[in-house]
Design brief:
Number of domains: 2
Strand order of the largest sheet: 1-6
Distance between the termini: 67 Å
Strand content: 15-25%
Largest sheet: 2 strands, antiparallel
Order of helices and strands: HHHEEEEEE
Number of strands: 6
Number of helices: 3
Length: about 130
């Protein structure tokens, strides 16, 4: 019973873990599927061979589901909501020009000013009909 509680807690932690990349999604799915498959295999067969078979099948299916779930998320494109019809094209903005300089360490009187970076906006960008 203690083993089932540990496996359930680990499965829950893995389930609640977020995934940001395809690799993470696939690995997370494989881990959750493997844990669930291993528990089912142990419960049904009561031996290590059944546990290993359940773990392998669960990891394969879970990894595939994780990969497909992540792949489906990337295919949805967000469309900006505008009050204009498709015939009214909004102008775009050009990229702003930003320059950065590094101000070295300085001592002014009794003040020590650590080096830092300063960003200067040279051109804020403009509307374009490209």
């Amino acid at each position: 019973m203690e083993m089932k509680m540990k496996a359930g807690a680990i499965s829950l932690l893995l389930l609640l873990n977020g995934c940001a990349t395809t690799t993470k999604s696939t690995l997370l799915g494989a881990a959750i599927g493997g844990a669930a498959g291993g528990m089912v295999g142990q419960a049904e067969s009561r031996n290590s061979q059944g546990t290993a078979i359940g773990l392998a099948i669960g990891a394969g299916v879970g990894g595939l589901i994780g990969y497909l779930a992540h792949k489906g998320k990337g295919s949805k494109e967000a469309t900006p909501a505008t009050p204009f019809s498709d015939g009214d094209l909004l102008p775009s903005l050009t990229k702003p020009k930003i320059r950065s300089i590094v101000v070295p360490d300085t001592i002014e009187g009794n003040k020590y000013i650590k080096s830092h970076r300063v960003f200067i906006l040279e051109d804020a960008g403009s509307w374009s009909r490209d």
